[in-house]
Amino acid sequence: xxxxxxxxxxxxxxxxxxxxxxxxxxxxxxxxxxxxxxxxxxxxxxxxxxxxxxxxxxxxxxxxxxxxxxxxxxxxxxxxxxxxxxxxxxxxxxxxxxxxxxxxxxxxxxxxxxxx
Length: 116
Description:
mainly beta, seven-stranded mixed sheet, four-stranded antiparallel sheet, 11 strands, 0% helix
């Protein structure tokens, strides 16, 4: 059974930075596609960034150039570096394991990011 636990959220001023972490247990994340998503109130869940098993990355246009996804295989941990934060980045951020075509089957509990 895979468990994903996010941390690192918080309140930050516009222009600030945060680093989100997603610690995985029960399986090795480097074998899978991993993604970061966010849920903004009254909006649909948005895929923010993804990293494939081969290390290739992808980003939503809204965060390209500001956010960076990475993973530490030794720590079995996924990261999302958030820079140049904007108020519209305020959301609950989730990590998940899966596939962009088939779907994501394991999700963390989420971590709140508030930018003001």
